[in-house]
TrEMBL record:
Domain of life: Bacteria
Name assigned to this protein: DUF4276 family protein
Annotated organism of origin: Paraburkholderia phenazinium
InterPro entries in the record: DUF4276 (IPR025455)
Amino acid sequence: MVELIVVGEGQTEETFVRDVLAPALSANRIYASARLINTSREQRGGALSLERVRKFIGHTLRQRVDTYVTTLIDLYGLDTTFRGVTDSKGQAPAARATRIENLLHEDVIAFAQCRPERFVPHVQPHEFESLLFSDVSKLCELEPGWRQQSHPLIAARAAVDDPEWINDSPHTAPSKRLEQLHPRYRKVRHGPVAAARIGLDRIRAQCPHFRQWYDRIAALPAMHAQRPNIEYTS
């Protein structure tokens, strides 16, 4: 059995891990569970500075020596304290995410002083809602009346090579497009249910960066316990 901790931003990611990701990974004998970074009393996500993320992940890695840790955080709105966020602007979404992931890996491993293979960073371009554009018709089955409002969503998906290219403007990011639906799209309520209805196979087929991450964590090997990490007080 492989134990994988998925560090997320809020309740949407927590529910997605529990209801969609974990059941799929269990077929590979990978036990996945979510941990939220406490960013507010309501744990609604946001305000993820590099320092807060690095410390949270680093302390999680130090708690045990036989677990893997990964992340499920959005590229959209990512704090500029993360290395690579500013200097990668203008690059393709997956290239930006990969650069930020690589730098985050360096930062976390330097802080945690653990084996580098134990941390598998993932930054989703541009945000969780991009995954739901993998099948707009399935998404619009969730609420009466959404099907009649699906044309702008279908057009947004058709305008890009894959859903991860739907842009990160404050007005046209995936979540902002969905907020135009009536009844209102609610991230925690609708997001994980839509993802489950669409299915991981469809999402992986449509979202290359997500697919690369999923395939990597689905192939994690069992880890033999080694001597405990040295504790540092950064």
